[in-house]
Design brief:
16 helices, 10-stranded mixed β-sheet, globular, alpha/beta
Length: about 500
């Protein structure tokens, strides 16, 4: 039996295979005073629970009351219990747990149609890059565009991993998504993201107590202002930016802050060969070994990428129960297939994220499933991972990374109602044996009809309900046209390998 078949970090039997399951006692939101009573019942629907070891539930009802999944069972019985509910015909629909984007840089949406095709770090070497042409307000708007793309592709929680999040936090909060603002700090005066060129010109790192203190103060300020806001939908995590720009003192400060406040924490890890070369030259260890040596690994920690980790590093990540966020689509864009099967085997929980430009978690799941099947080189290829394993990564794995594994990631009575509603009345989804398999192999992100967070629709019947999407798009188009005109004027962009581009 394979490791994937044995994975089981969810409790079995929490949903009844037959009969009605209800929250014990009163139907009130757990741990909070709801603003208003709100009950919804989806009838005669299909429920994909998110447990990789559980079959889909067919022709059942799912009830939501005050933001919590209150019942799953036969439609007639559920309707009798919830006579005041708004009833939604769930035939031709499927309900899935909302997915968690564990690694996003939302303002990078400005670089769509460019950044994906020039390697990493970007090899275009532009004199004027698109990101530098944005004001703080425009950068926030680009982040909101990324958030709307997230909603439309089935995401209910986003980890925004960058610095100076305060400038966009208010606008992001308005979208209704569940957020982790991972405020990022660095304290190296003379180092940056490593490319072959920056590594060749590098010097021994000089770490700055002033930079470190400023970064930790940003984290403290953001935490004080935003953590717990929007009825608990917003968390603030500390983050170190990159292994090559973080001192041992900063790593310890980040972990200490996370443990003091019961938070997760993250860092970019093993993104490039130049990062590895830099860490070996100036620290004498591999990137993961550097984190281990400075007590940064652990069960609260989720690493972004881990593209080039070797067997020793994988063993360290597994032994410390660290998690890994797999940005499958961006890794494929970079021409990399990270060692996800080995990380699973070592015991790492895998979660998923988008990274730059594209905020489509459906694409991440699909690419992640297919590239891992190639990477595994099984005796009988094409069997592992299964779509259920990938959804569990994206939903429950993400819930673990965001410190919400007891509340999110599964469609199960008593958990928060963060739900994707699929329209299954599609030519590419009919007929289907397992709707999740049909969707990941044959579907489209536009099959996501509605998105629910905390029991509230933030998108319903393809319409975003929380913000004025059309006005935002119109403004973003104007900004994008201006920025790209400036970029093209300064340095016309020629795709790699073109000798007669016109």
């Amino acid at each position: 039996m394979s490791k994937l078949e044995r994975r089981d970090f969810v409790k079995k039997g929490l949903l009844a295979s037959a009969g009605l399951t209800l929250i014990p006692g009163a139907f009130t939101k757990l741990g909070a005073t709801p603003k208003k009573s709100s009950t919804i019942v989806f009838t005669h629907t299909t429920v994909v629970t998110g447990d990789a070891n559980r079959a889909q539930l067919k022709d059942v009802a799912l009830s939501i009351r005050d933001g919590i999944i209150a019942a799953i069972g036969p439609t007639d019985e559920v309707l009798k219990k919830f006579t005041d509910a708004e009833v939604i015909d769930g035939r031709k629909k499927a309900l899935l747990p909302g997915v968690v984007n564990c690694h996003a840089h939302l303002s990078a949406t400005i670089a769509r149609g460019f950044n994906e095709d020039f390697g990493f770090p970007n090899r275009a070497k532009l004199a004027v890059s698109p990101g530098t042409q944005l004001s703080s307000e425009e950068r926030a708007l680009m982040s909101v565009i990324g958030a709307l793309h997230s909603i439309r592709t089935g995401t209910t929680t986003v980890v925004e991993n960058t610095s100076k999040i305060a400038s966009s936090a208010q606008e992001l909060a308005k979208t209704g998504l569940r957020w982790v603002f991972a405020e990022s700090a660095s304290d190296c005066e003379n180092c940056t993201l490593m490319s072959p060129e920056t590594f060749a010109a590098s010097e021994k790192p000089r770490f700055s107590a002033k930079m470190r203190d400023e970064g930790m103060q940003r984290i403290e300020d953001l935490f004080s202002k935003w953590h717990g806001h929007n009825n608990g939908r917003i968390q603030v995590f500390p983050a170190a930016s990159l292994t090559e720009v973080a001192s041992p003192e900063l790593l310890r400060a980040i972990r200490t802050f996370a443990e003091k406040h019961n938070l997760g924490y993250t860092i970019h890890l093993s993104q490039t060969h130049s990062e590895i070369n830099y860490m070996m030259k100036y620290h004498g260890v591999l990137p993961t070994e550097y984190l281990y040596k400075n007590d940064f690994l652990g069960p609260r920690f989720f690493a972004g990428h881990a593209r080039y980790v070797n067997k020793k590093e994988i063993e360290l990540l597994g032994r410390t129960k660290s998690m890994v966020s797999h940005q499958a689509s961006m890794a494929a864009n970079r021409g990399v297939s990270p060692p996800i099967p080995d990380l699973r085997e070592a015991g790492c929980i895998i979660c998923m994220g988008t990274d730059n430009n594209n905020n489509d978690m459906y694409a991440v799941m699909k690419v992640g499933m297919l590239t891992e099947r190639i990477r595994r080189q099984d005796e009988h290829p094409g069997m592992f991972p299964q779509p259920e394993d990938i959804l569990q990564d994206a939903a429950l794995g993400g819930a673990h990374a965001t410190n919400q594994a007891d509340k999110l990631g599964l469609l199960e009575v008593g958990r928060k109602a963060d739900i994707i509603v699929l329209d299954t009345q599609k030519v590419h989804l009919i007929p289907s044996g397992r709707i999740l398999s049909a969707w990941l192999h044959n579907g489209q992100p536009s099959d996501v009809e509605s998105v629910i967070v905390d029991g509230e629709f933030i998108m319903r019947n393809h319409k975003i309900l929380t913000v004025d999407e059309e006005s935002i798009l119109n403004e973003a188009r104007k900004i994008g046209e201006r920025v790209w005109a400036e970029v093209d004027k300064a340095n016309p962009i020629v795709p790699p390998g073109r000798k007669n581009w016109h």
